[in-house]
Write a structure and sequence with these properties.
The chain has nine helices and no strands. It is an all-alpha fold and 302 residues long. Helix 6 crosses helix 7, helix 6 runs parallel beside helix 8 and helix 7 packs antiparallel against helix 8. This is Conserved oligomeric Golgi complex subunit 3 N-terminal domain-containing protein.
Length: 302
């Protein structure tokens, strides 16, 4: 850079040459002599130098350049500005060089690190999103576990309820059978009122169609009560059933006597009528007539 070289020539008298810089220059010269570069490497260095030359200076150095122009400490070359558009600054001492280099390195580092910082922020956000999803998945799994436990509890309670219902059904069936058995036993005692009402009915007589079934029912009730004396008030019921039985037998006896009387009257009337026709009637004829009359009366009573 011509402007930089000229300015350096102007300030060379006032800035002494550093021993470290001289030593570094000598080392670089020796290195270049011992390890010469190929044309391809030199071309790459030239391309890199052009790329660096086209890079603008940081804003603070640009401001220092403006201030230096006002003080007469820097010169800008119109040709360099037209070719590269970069800002040329005159570095009059090592401090300015180190400051310029530090600012340039910081600017390059900031530009190169921006995209990586963006990647880091993006990855951090993605990691946070994944952590949130994992947390939600864990909460969902916990809810599923609680739901499974509740389902198992409900299934257990349902099975317990079914078992209890089965036991209740069995108990109900047992009670129904017990009630039916008890009802069958109590029917003998309940028949007392029904049989009493029927026997004391005005229309009831020996010739009635329900007389003999009622008498048989009374006999069954008496047999059952006599065979189960452990029941309460069985003696009272036994006495009442025997009273009904006696009444029925009395009705039968009265009916038989009535039939015999009617038959005897009819036989006597027949004998008297036959005696008027014939003076003497043999005993065999009289016996046959009496037999026929009693047989007819017996058939009527049946």
């Amino acid at each position: 850079m011509a402007a930089t070289t000229a300015a350096a020539g102007v300030g060379k008298a006032s800035v002494p040459k550093s021993g470290a810089i001289s030593k570094g220059y000598n080392f670089a010269s020796t290195w270049e002599q011992n390890a010469p570069l190929t044309e391809q490497q030199q071309a790459a260095i030239v391309a890199l130098s052009h790329a660096v030359a086209e890079r603008p200076f940081p804003s603070n150095l640009a401001q220092e350049k403006v201030a230096g122009l006002e003080n007469g400490l820097s010169i800008s070359t119109k040709r360099s500005a037209e070719d590269s558009g970069a800002i040329d600054a005159v570095l009059v001492n090592t401090n300015q060089f180190y400051k310029w280099f530090t600012d340039l390195e910081a600017a390059m580092k900031s530009e190169t690190e921006d995209k990586y910082q963006h990647y880091v922020r993006t990855l951090t956000e993605r990691i946070q999103t994944c952590d949130t999803i994992l947390h939600q998945v864990d909460e969902t799994l916990e809810l599923f576990n609680e739901l499974q436990l509740q389902h198992q509890a409900v299934a257990t309670k349902t099975k317990t309820l079914h078992d209890a219902c089965d036991r209740l059904v069995v108990e109900k069936q047992r009670l129904i059978e017990f009630a039916e058995s008890l009802r069958a036993k109590l029917n003998y005692f309940d028949e007392l009122e029904n049989v009493t009402t029927s026997f004391y009915s005005p229309s009831m007589n020996v010739a009635h169609e329900n007389f003999l079934p009622l008498l048989k029912r009374v006999d069954d009730c008496i047999s059952y009560v006599e065979s189960n004396p452990q029941y309460a008030e069985c003696n009272v019921y036994l006495v009442k059933f025997r009273q009904l039985q006696s009444r029925a037998l009395g009705m039968i006896r009265s009916h038989v006597l009535s039939v015999l009387k009617n038959t005897s009257s009819q036989v006597q009337a027949a004998i008297r009528s036959s005696a008027g026709d014939k003076a003497s009637v043999s005993e065999g004829v009289e016996a046959s007539v009496i037999y026929v009359r009693f047989k007819a009366a017996a058939n009527e009573s049946d």
